[in-house]
Amino acid sequence: MTPGGVSSMTYEDADIFAFISKKSRPVSAPEKVTVSENETLSGGNSASKISPENEIGGREKDLFKEISGSEESSDPATKPAFEELPVPLPETVTETDIQNPSGSDSKAFSSTFSDASELSGLSRAVPAPASSFYPEDSYPADFSEKEELPFETFEDYDFGVSRAPPSLVEAFGIVTTGIEPLEITPSAATITGYIASARRSEIRLGTYVVVPYEDGEKLFARVGKLQYRQEFAVDDATEIHSRRMLNARASPINEADYKFLACLDPLCILYHKRAEGSLTRRMADRIPRPNTPILPVTDRLEVQTGLNIPEEGIFLGHLSVGGELVKTHSEPETVAYYLRNDYSMGDPLIFRHMLICGSTGTGKTFLSKNILRQFMTESNRYRLRNASDNARKNPCLVIMDPQDEYSQIFEDNETLTDDDRFRFESENVACGRVQSTKAFVAKVDGQKYPGDKSRAEQIEFTIPFSFVEHNSWLIAAAGMSELQFIGLDVLLGDFFKSSGPHTYQNFISHIENEGTRSYYVDSNRIHESSYDGIVRRVNSRFFSKVFDRDATPISDIVDKIFKPGQISVFPTEYISSPRIRDLIVLTIMSLIVDNKLNTTGIDAIKETPIILALDEAHRYLSKANGEHARLIISRFADAARQGRKEALGLFLITQDPQDIDDTVIKQINTKLILNLNNDAAISSLKVPKEYERRIPYLKKGQMIVHSPDNSDIVEILGLSSCVVRHR
């Protein structure tokens, strides 16, 4: 204490100064700032005593360490001059008050500031900290219960002096205008935040934050850019500086020399319509005040509302940023990502189709099993638009399985623990086998299905040639010209009008007959070269191996395939010929599409909600190359457009999304994008540029979700365990 009664302390400690009757209150200050004889205002030798029981200076001390970037030093000579400042007077204490104190405390006040005239040169005054975001009673008490001496509150100064509430302690930093002005326009916004040194390592590109307004609303934003800017004039781009930093004995860089800034991308404003109303959002139409705290998002409902994620539906994964799960103070702490699956905003999104794409080995099948299993719960029912009673039914899941992996949905995952199941249940994640899973196996000459991956029931079938009557493209080879395709339609039409068994072998015998050839060529119904080309392309040993085999025709078991609540798997791995595989898959696809799109059709298909899962979708929905491919794409593009009305959902899985025709891609509402390294594939997905850059770096199970009708574009992590068997 100087003779004038004023102790020398840091600028940061000025806001904890208080007045005690007949005795100055002991104040704890950072240990780094000591008081020497040269630093007293009036030449005195005494210094303020620091009470170990007083906790007020602790937080300021930590902040000092963070800013300085170094440990405390016991040598006063090493302390920088700018760290040692005399205590300025509060704004509420004027020079007149100091010289003419009054009231019961006048004697103590006079003795404390007897030499206050020497302080007239101070230019700074510290206003009492206050916050419009937190009420006065939210601040915890500062003073130790062990203090023996009571003190009288100086009301004009003590308000808000206490430590920040926990929510402010968690703040990343503050909104600042020191770099760029705060600005918001209809198309963009400029909101810059200064990030405190203690929280800098926690900020990532894409981190979600909230910024409170004074009226209780909150700005929900995403970190869109991070940058360092110089705080002091430090030239760190010199040869001397670089050698010093690369020296093993060099001290680490002082981060206090730099400002660490986060540029925020506003996503929405969170608010309550009424005092007790539910949380909702609107577009970001206002900017926060300068110096407002930037807070982490700790409320799961705020995250779901801010990103427009439904609170329930089909579980896809957990929200993440940079491959790390977003955690909240809720229970459970993770944020589940659901696909909207009700009629509150139109039809469920599965009927606007889904695409899962990723390179080989990124977990497409694992993820697909987990998602498809969610559709097969007893409570999941969809209504049929044309049903007279508007009844709802469970969907039938039809899976085209080129690797013989999906029949395992019939089996439980033996590795799941009780803890896993409890965690799944807490987030409405369906797990466990689906007993209605059946494998429908096409009989192919010379090929046998092993069926050893699950105990699911196996039903053998054959494709009758009669299916070709209305789907001539089933036997039209790729590259067939338009004239040849027209000629094939003519030949098939006349063949199915004739009497006799309409088998593939009878058709080949019919068109190879010389009299038949002469009839069509001589009458100019089909050109000679086109006719010979048709015969060469259609007379293939592949077709003879699959049509009209010794098994039940698929047309006779339609009721067994398309049943509500059933999973019907069509494995094709056992078939060595890719052309036969394609024929089987296209036959099933055409059977579904024809009956769904036509005004009349088989009741089992037309009156059942169907989800068609198509693995290796690029093989069947590739960009048109010839008349054959053009007809296939045209048919299934119609199915994609009308699927919403007919309760038909496409679930496409591929590693080559760039090969799928644009007319089909445009109909897909929800895209789950795993790791891709092909630039053409990434560009074809039409996601924002900032997300395109992330796709090649996604880890296994990590994905970007682009579903405009469900949520903002986000990153999620799939489950680490499969809800059914996966081997």
TrEMBL record:
AAA+ ATPase domain sequence ranges: 350-674
Skewed-composition ranges (Polar residues): 35-51, 93-111
Organism domain of life: Archaea
Extent of Basic and acidic residues compositional bias: 56-65
Region (Disordered): 24-111
Name of the protein: ATPase
Organism (species): Methanosarcina mazei
